[in-house]
C-alpha cells in the first residue's frame, strides 16, 4: 500500500511538471513540448482576425523534428500557374516555450508565433506581430 501511494505521488508530481501555460490547452500532457511539436503538419484552419482564410493555406505542409529542423512546403496558384515552394531551416522555443521561432533559408517564411495550443495532434499558432492564426493537424 505504501509503495502504491509513493508511486501515485511521483506520477502526480510528474504530471503537474508537464502542465502548460497555453491559452487553449492542454492543461496536462505526459509528452514533452518538443515531442508534441515534432510532427508532419498541415494547416487545418487559418484565421485572420476571426475571418476564415483556410483556402489560402490548405496546401501548406510543415515538418518539424525533435532536433529543431524544419521543412516548409507550400503549393499555391498564382495567375493560373501552380508553384511549389520548399525551404528548410530550424525552429526553437522562445519565451519559456510560450512562443516558437522559425528561421528558414528563404527569409520570407521566417516568423515568431505565440503557441495557443500544443497537443500531440494539434498545434495552434498565432503570428506574434500579426493577425494570422494557424491551426495545424497531422498530415
UniProtKB/TrEMBL annotation:
This is Lipocalin-like domain-containing protein. It comes from Mongoliitalea lutea. The lineage of its organism: Bacteria, Pseudomonadati, Bacteroidota, Cytophagia, Cytophagales.
